[in-house]
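Retro notes - structure team

What went well: the batch runner handled both jobs without manual restarts.
What didn't: labels got mixed up in the shared folder, which is why I'm recording both outputs here explicitly, each with its sequence directly above its tokens.

Job 1
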Amino acid sequence: MSQIDQNVDPVEVAKFDALADSWWDPHGQSRPLHEINPLRLQYITDCSSGLERAKVIDVGCGGGILSEAMAKAGAEVTAIDMGEMPLNVARLHALESGLTIDYQQSTAEAMAARSANSFDIVTCMEMLEHVPDPATVIQACAILAKPGGDIFFSTLNRHPKAWLLAVFGAEYLLNILPKGTHDYQRFIRPSELAAWCRASGLQVMNITGINYQPLSKQFRLGQDVDVNYLMHCRLLP
């Protein structure tokens, strides 16, 4: 394994390989991703110059839920992941949907080495908490962006409420996610993520929470960042 490909945890890759068959089932184990995807798309659209004709890379794309949404919105999408099985599912689903998406098995670091300053928008959603060195991925995302480009991250906050809802609640109480999907110690505080972004030359533009409303059983964007949150950064020209 080359130095550039070492920031991969095979155990984490295997977890998502095991989910591949149910990736596009909106009522299956990937249901939370389907439910928050419209919010992610809204956030990206509102915080950038828009997706129409934008050159986008989706880092840690999994089965392609966000990748397809951005392609449908008019973006030219490249999507990368290290899980072979989710990528196979993503390619097949894109073919069935009549969408052209360039899916590649690659780390962010390897892609940055060959495609620096190439993308108007870089997305890295629900991925940072699954790699050994999140800061290296963030640096790679900064390298991939064009000057003036927008970079979007989402992850889980290392906050007791996140353990209660995202780990104990979702995995053990409600069985929404497979047990062991998340490791609480790998959750990332917003202050940590912001510091890594600034160290990579990015300006933090916005931090917004993804909040679950138990009465309506729906997710909303809001100010509470204790569990899930989105961060918008920009690579200044």
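Job 2
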Amino acid sequence: MSNTTPDFQADEFLLDHYVGKTPLVRLQRLASHTQATVLAKLEGNNPAGSVKDRPAYNMIMQAEKRGQIKPGDTLIEATSGNTGIALAMVAAMRGYKMKLIMPASSSQERKDAMRAYGAELIESESMEHARDLALQMEKDGIGLVLNQFGNPDNLEAHYLTTGPEIWEQTGGKITHFVSSMGTTGTIMGISKYLKEQNPNVQIVGLQPSEGSNIPGIRRWPKEYLPTIFDASRVDEIMDIPQIEAEKTARQLARLEGISAGVSSGGAVWASLRIAEQHPDAVIVCIVCDRGDRYLSTGLFSVEDTE
């Protein structure tokens, strides 16, 4: 029996090779009543299944490069789900302990995914409470808070990757960019890049309408507004009704074969409204994750009557 090493080629699994470079697909049936081009950026194709893979990887790697952290350290983050899953994945690969704080109302799939990557999960009563608790734990010396809500490395990830991908994939023809807003890192980074290429590109941010509860996006109280948010980089803010976001998420799966969550449904709903008003538009929206993270919520069990 030979003891020689097998001769084969394999990539070392470096995340910077695999995060991003996601597909941009044209919606066919949902947008068929308009003349505009509506394109969906499928961020669920990232390794941990969401757009948050991009900032999670960048925040940890940049902190390493600055000497703020080293493998074996404990990282802390407040999250509504996708960022936590992505951070847990990167932490597992880089050798960090990960403590994640999230609202108890988050879907079971999200909680299970975080634990699957080895993260410790702490449930809280709200996202605001989760953010406060994370900062208190850091003050108590338990670990370092990456602070996606105020960390420039969050938006930098989108300025360096997502924005250039969208510009290249549309051949520079994009006229409108649509994104739900949570930490606002996605819309801030992409807006910065696209406006540098063409100041006339319209940037549309989405927040839940009053009384709506859409996972991953918020109407932040003023004192909790992410410090990376710059209102001057958003041309229009649209309110998204929860019922329309949920209905469109189901239509996206049933009519386009794209399984995604509620905030993605909201982004598509807003894009279709823009398409109806601007027949010559080329609209890109972020489909931020996959629908399998919402199965236990019953999102896809509803039969819409209209």
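One thing worth noting from job 2: The chain is about 35% helix and 15% strand.
We'll revisit the folder naming next retro.
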